[in-house]
Design a protein that fits this description.
Helix content of chain A: 25-40%
CATH architecture of the largest domain in chain A: Alpha-Beta Complex
Oligomer: homodimer
Distance between the termini of chain A: 46 Å
Largest sheet of chain A: 6 strands, mixed
Number of strands of chain A: 19
Order of helices and strands of chain A: HEHEEHEHEHEHHHEEEEEEHHEEEEEEE
Number of helices of chain A: 10
Largest interface: A-B, 28 and 28 residues
CATH topology of the largest domain in chain A: Creatine Amidinohydrolase
Chain lengths: ~350, ~350
């Protein structure tokens, strides 16, 4: 994070020092990836406090001063010393992340702190607009998803189960460099595909089934996310109708989104297509969500989101139609907001694939 | 959870009602698996509060009353009504789990609550001793690990990477019924095996390498955990020496642990073998940790743990020797503490396997 961004937090909140404990924010601010410990920042000092398991790595990953916490030099004592150097009595903390017991321990052991300022989502808000380095890592993660999708097309056939499909997708992502998964892979076939968050079962894929696959991996801490729906066998008329409406809705959104629109306006680009086709009641979720170090971040493409889109926000575009007892379609790409449009990070085909 | 256990919490803490928000504890207490919402219990009322996505499932999973929270009937209002029925003014909450901002919102919106009692680890403590149903689920999860280990022995050979090995283990666990993973699978070869928490890399396994694999899955919410170390090719004298010391240490622990010993006494059973063999400085971690809904639970087999072991606690037994620049061995089984010994849930072979 740049020095200006940090200065801005101090100015906006009135804090004299910040205690950062969310592992993702610790990494974002300091570069330290270990996740254990705390980042202390003030206008004068930038410090990673962690234990002996991580100090060596922290020294390589972060430009901050690294202080080792141990039995002889406990975290409270380290913080006391840092606060004294700064003469800081007003401290910002991540109330959205910190557990009550940890807060209570800190307030009891550091009575010299006069005021505790909840930071709410100040740090998360900064993370909404991605840096060029972050965009590269997200694009890499998304390309791993593309590679896995290309492999799964050779694997899908009648008789394969949903669980096997999800396992194969995860296996392929790992083989292509995934370091972890953004969420539990969804593979839903036939009528199961009408549930947006279906959990894969041992149901065998049958000829004529929709198969919806929603999957993502992590790469150097950053998440990917994509969804494709295919038909195993030949699509019938209704499957084709639904698929094409969802695709049309997605293309309308991809063609219309740009910096300056609100989340609600972006959502409406796709939602109006689905509504006008008569399926408005079958698209119950938001069009998209921010993606970065967390798989679900602000802002959202949703009817309630008034955030004005800025360049280099990364957001999913995932319209869907879900017909209970019949099946459903979702098509999801990951995009970067640009001044006059979007950059699509997902390159897998999305014509109706019949296997 | 039994009615007696709940009564006991009210008696011990003086609380008139409990707000349970840790998803694992919500499931443990009510049976509800959705994880979203809150469980309210008092001597008179047992309630799951959740939203429309989960109410149907909650009704099937839980014997508690299910109340739907929505825009017209918000959680605060529901809690206010439940508290009024109980005349409750002293409320226990999970300070180890609840975030500061959530606590602050609750205290502000429910001023009728006179006293908030941090429950600390009261609920987690109850979960240490497993019920017969829980033991069955953990045993099932561990058997999935056994099946994956048996498959990986056919897969390992020179040229295969650590990442491929980890991916294959996860794939096999999924195929055998895993619903998720307890943690990121470890597969460390050659000198990498000297790092207890090595992250798999694209390093290829070479002839003569130790390969340490530490992996676990979840089944119906419960975790498994096991580690095996094998040699790809022929073990040399030093590898054989280290392997046999670790195995002897583990067998000593498995033969000596029983209800009534402290965590420290159990740890010492294995640690003394490794110390006497001259490798005391190369076994830096604890002998084991509780396993259940969480992969790491209390109690521990560690030099610092004074917990007296009780029947039907489930704990890992995982001694190791790690020699930087050479390699390492860890052998881990999952056991159930019994009155006169242990029941081993892990059935994979642990003679030195040379592939």
């Amino acid at each position: 994070m740049s020095r200006e961004m940090i200065q801005d937090i101090f100015k906006r909140t009135g804090a004299q020092a910040l205690f950062i404990t969310d592992p993702h924010n610790m990494m974002y601010i300091s570069g330290f990836r270990g996740g254990e410990g705390m980042v202390y920042i003030s206008p004068k000092q930038q410090v990673v406090i962690t234990d002996s398991r991580y100090t060596e790595a922290a020294g390589k990953e972060s430009s901050f001063t690294v202080i080792e916490e141990n039995h002889g030099h406990k975290r409270t004592q380290i913080l006391r010393e840092l606060l004294a150097v700064d003469g800081a009595e007003i401290v910002g903390y991540e109330d959205k992340f910190m557990r009550c017991y940890e807060f209570s321990r800190l307030t009891n052991s550091l009575p010299e702190i006069q005021q505790w300022l909840p930071l709410d989502e100040s740090i998360d808000a900064i993370r909404q607009v991605k840096t060029p380095e972050e965009l590269k890592l997200i694009a890499k993660a998304e390309s791993i998803g593309d590679a896995a999708f290309s492999e799964i097309l050779k694997f899908l056939k009648p008789g394969v189960t949903e669980l096997e499909t999800a396992a194969e997708l995860e296996y392929q992502m790992k083989l292509h460099g995934a370091q972890g998964f953004s969420f539990n892979t969804i593979a839903a076939s036939g009528i199961h595909s009408s549930m947006p968050h279906a959990v894969p079962t041992d149901k065998k894929i049958e000829n004529g089934d929709f198969v919806t696959m929603d999957f993502g991996c992590t790469y150097e801490g950053y998440c990917s996310d994509m969804t494709r729906t295919v038909v195993v066998g030949k699509a019938d008329a209704k499957q084709r109708e639904i698929y094409n409406i969802v695709l049309e809705a997605q293309m309308a959104a991809l063609g219309g989104i740009h910096a300056g629109l609100t989340g609600a306006q972006c959502d409406e680009l796709a939602r109006s297509v689905i509504r006008n086709a008569g399926y408005g009641d079958h698209f119950g979720h938001a069009l998209g969500h921010g993606v970065g170090l967390y798989i679900h971040e602000e802002p959202r493409f949703s009817p309630q989101d008034s955030t004005v889109m800025q360049e280099n926000m990364v957001i999913s575009v995932e319209p869907g139609i879900y017909v209970p007892g019949f099946g459903g379609v979702r098509i999801e790409d990951l995009i970067v907001i640009k001044k006059d449009g979007v950059e699509n990070l997902t390159h897998s085909p999305k014509n109706l694939i019949e296997l």
